[in-house]
Every structure is written in C-alpha cells, then in structure tokens.
Amino acid sequence: EDYVEAKAVDAHWIQRTMGKLDDNEDPMETQQRAEQVLEYLADAGKKDEVVETALTNLFQYQKFDFIKQCLNNRVKIVWCTKLARAKGDAKDDLMAELRAEPYG
Predict the structure, then answer these.
(1) Residues 80, 85: Cα–Cα separation, whole Å
(2) From first to last of its 104 residues, what are the pLDDT tens digits of the chain?
(3) Torsion region of 63: left, alpha or beta (phi above 0 gives left; psi -120 to 50 gives alpha)
(4) Which of 20, 46, 97, 99 meets the CB 3.0–4.6 Å disulfide criterion with 104?
(5) 45-76: burial string, b at 16+ Cβ within 10 Å, e else
(6) Cβ-Cβ contacts under 8 Å for 99 (sequence gap 6 or more)
C-alpha cells in the first residue's frame, strides 16, 4: 500500500522499510542508502520526477513499490523523520519551520 501514516514514521522508518525489502543487504549499506533516500526526498528544489530517477538509479531499477511509496508520502516522510531525529530546541525550530511551509 502506498499510504504511510505519520505516526508510523520515526527516525529509522526508511532504513527499517528497506531492510524488510532485502534481507540479504548489509545493514551498514542499508543505513547509508537510507540516508541517501532521505537526502533525495528532502531536496525541496527537486521535482518528483528527478527524485524518482535518482532513487531508481540508487536501487538499480529495483524496489519500485518502495520508491512509489516514498514519493507519494515524500513530505510526510521527510518531516516526520526530521522531527523524530531532532532534540530539544532543534525540534522547536523544525516545528516553526514546518508551520511556515505551505503544507504545514
């Protein structure tokens, strides 16, 4: 399913979801690729088509359902992950930034 509930997205949602898709991948490689996925998704200056191409290349034309899920929930995944990782004042700053965005 493409829909991702915001409460399901924590600091490691991308990595955990990727791990479920490929049991044979090295956990360190999964972690590195999860960071790349977040980086691509978080780049607000890039259109979905550009991010889709980058993710498709990253996964060597595999995991299309995961890529689709990430793109369809892009904003939610990025902000929920950032918020889950933030601590203290950084979390307050992120909340203020989110409220200032058009989708906030």
Answers:
(1) 9
(2) 689 999 999 999 999 999 998 877 789 999 999 999 999 999 999 999 999 999 999 998 899 999 999 999 999 999 999 999 999 888 888 888 888 877 64
(3) left
(4) 99
(5) eeeeeebbebbeeebeeebeebbebbbebbeb
(6) none
- Cα separation of 102 and 16, whole Å? 29
pLDDT (0 to 100) of residue 103: 64
CA distances from 19 to 6, 23, 30, 75 (A): 19, 6, 7, 21
Q: Which amino acid is at 10?
A: D
Residue 89's alpha-carbon distances to 6, 75, 77, 86, 102, in angstroms, are 21, 22, 21, 8, 22
Residues in the chain: 104
| pLDDT score, position 92 | 86
